[in-house]
């Protein structure tokens, strides 16, 4: 059996972990909203039409922040048509997802849902077809106490007190050629628009923070030069640079799939370098922070690629986009919503690896929004249950608090071949990828610490020596393992315990070290208490 060593010390500090690092992302795609969180015809619908069983289990999970209503949808969304009496709201075509937007769930309902599940809303403003004036009116309507047309209209619509949105996302993936009113060819124009919008937001509410859209994928032809040109116009007025990335791997290639964190690591490091270059350019004392507010991981079949594009997206060879624009518009019936993917254990493990990467960059990455974060909760017409991803997400939300610590890992390694699935999904080769991946946290205020560890070896168990001797005043409170013999196992309504966390039974402790066995493809969380 292969062996590895991990050392975690309370002095190896990275930075403060922002609670919003473990956020989620919500967009009205298919049944995510209509038929997901909202169905007024459901027996458990509350006074707003929200399903109370989904509300309660989401509140129980404790997701600290949700980016809403985010995504491509927002680049054409008219928020003013989504407020007031439902019967008077305007219906529109949603060009992003080829669907009819009825606006039955609108601006106020999204924020009311966030209030009811006790999460911070990260509100996305329309920087595609939307104007600076629209943004001004939206912020005034949302956050101003009263005494103006827009704030009084909010009160007339039933919300006496302001919604108090703290974080405003200024557009979504504006570098993407697929975006409604893309700024792909005019980063300077987008940067100026964001600068002016960010100014007025903070003039209305000085406590607000703003997020500028950076590169939506490292495979864009404009990356990372686009980010530099945008930041050159708005560096002084914004607080975060937004990044998105969906890691795709060739079907069946476990090594490439579980190497998502290496690609995220390179992406984050490049963007931090771009931010720091702009800081030096402006001789500014401010360090730009990162909001990684969309991410995911999946397998993808081999499709068409364009010779010579070298990772840049060629729109004529983007088959998903071509099929997308040819399909008819659809109406999302809440009573006929299709269930989302079941959420395999393997996906949960890959997302854990990505979360570890964000924690290891906690000094600069302050916001993280898992695209499937709300759908770690399974549901059908009558039931809700906890999917495999629920337990991984719960572990980070509950235990990754305080200061991020930098672990030292000595592990057997593997190599990943480079691949080119299509013009949108390409990854270079990686050598010396460690099978063991780790992050750690220290919550000094409450006398707690936690070590998160993954064995991403898909063929062998590993023996691990975990050195925590630096935590001289701490004892081991517990060791939770999330593992499934079948990596494709998933919790369903019929079998809700296919993947469940368990307590490790055979650890051995000696001289400040824990000797443990990590089954192949397993997530471990070791809790320490002072």
UniProtKB/TrEMBL annotation:
It comes from the Bacteria. Pfam families: Alpha-L-AF_C, ASD1_dom. Pathway: Glycan metabolism. The keyword Phosphoprotein does not apply. Its EC number is 3.2.1.55. Residues 293-522 form the Alpha-L-arabinofuranosidase C-terminal domain. It catalyses: Hydrolysis of terminal non-reducing alpha-L-arabinofuranoside residues in alpha-L-arabinosides. Keywords: Carbohydrate metabolism, Glycosidase, Hydrolase. The keyword Transport does not apply. Homohexamer; trimer of dimers. Belongs to the glycosyl hydrolase 51 family. This is non-reducing end alpha-L-arabinofuranosidase.
């Amino acid at each position: 059996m292969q062996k590895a060593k991990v050392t975690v010390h309370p002095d190896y500090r990275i930075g403060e972990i922002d609670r919003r690092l473990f956020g989620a992302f919500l967009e009205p795609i298919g049944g995510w909203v209509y038929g997901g969180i909202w169905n007024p015809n459901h027996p458990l619908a509350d006074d707003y039409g929200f399903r109370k069983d989904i509300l309660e289990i989401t509140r129980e999970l404790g997701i600290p922040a949700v980016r809403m209503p985010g995504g491509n949808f927002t680049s054409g969304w008219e928020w003013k048509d989504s407020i007031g009496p439902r019967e008077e709201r305007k219906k529109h075509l949603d060009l992003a997802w080829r669907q009819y937007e009825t606006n039955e769930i609108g601006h106020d309902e999204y924020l009311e849902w966030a209030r009811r599940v006790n999460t911070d809303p990260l509100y996305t403003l329309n920087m595609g077809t939307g104007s600076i004036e629209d943004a001004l009116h939206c912020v005034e309507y949302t956050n101003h106490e009263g005494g103006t047309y827009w704030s009084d209209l909010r009160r007339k619509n039933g919300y006496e007190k302001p919604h108090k949105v703290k974080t405003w996302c200024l557009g979504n993936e504006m570098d993407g050629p697929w975006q409604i009113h893309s700024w792909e060819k005019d980063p300077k124009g987008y940067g100026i628009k964001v600068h002016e919008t960010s100014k007025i937001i903070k003039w209305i509410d000085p406590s607000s923070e703003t997020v500028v859209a950076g590169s939506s994928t490292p495979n864009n032809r404009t990356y990372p030069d686009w980010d530099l040109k945008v930041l050159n116009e708005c560096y002084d007025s914004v607080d975060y640079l937004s990044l998105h990335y969906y890691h795709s791997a060739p079907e069946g290639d476990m090594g490439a799939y579980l190497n998502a964190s290496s690609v995220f690591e390179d992406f984050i490091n490049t963007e931090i370098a771009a931010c720091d270059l702009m800081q030096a350019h402006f001789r500014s004392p401010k360090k730009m922070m990162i909001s990684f507010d969309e991410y995911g991981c999946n397998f993808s079949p081999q499709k068409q690629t364009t010779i010579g594009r070298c990772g840049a997206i060629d729109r004529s060879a983007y088959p998903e986009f071509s099929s997308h624009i040819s399909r008819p518009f659809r109406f999302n019936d809440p009573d006929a919503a299709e269930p989302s993917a079941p959420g395999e254990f393997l996906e949960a493990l890959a997302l854990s690896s990505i979360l570890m990467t964000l924690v290891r960059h906690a000094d600069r990455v302050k916001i993280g929004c898992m695209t499937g974060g709300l759908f770690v909760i399974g549901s059908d017409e009558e039931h809700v249950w906890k999917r495999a991803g629920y337990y991984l997400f719960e572990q980070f939300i509950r235990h990754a608090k305080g200061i991020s610590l930098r672990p030292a890992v000595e592990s057997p390694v593997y190599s990943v071949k480079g691949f080119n699935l299509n013009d949108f999904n390409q990854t270079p080769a990686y050598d010396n990828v460690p099978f063991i991946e780790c992050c750690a946290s220290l919550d000094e205020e409450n006398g707690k610490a936690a070590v998160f560890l993954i064995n991403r070896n898909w063929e062998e168990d590993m023996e691990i020596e975990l050195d925590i001797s630096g935590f001289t005043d701490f004892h081991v409170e517990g060791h939770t393992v999330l593992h499934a013999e079948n990596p494709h196992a998933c919790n369903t309504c019929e079998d809700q315990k296919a993947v469940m966390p368990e307590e490790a039974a055979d650890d051995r402790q000696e001289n400040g070290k824990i000797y443990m066995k990590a089954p192949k493809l397993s997530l471990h969380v070791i809790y320490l208490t002072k």
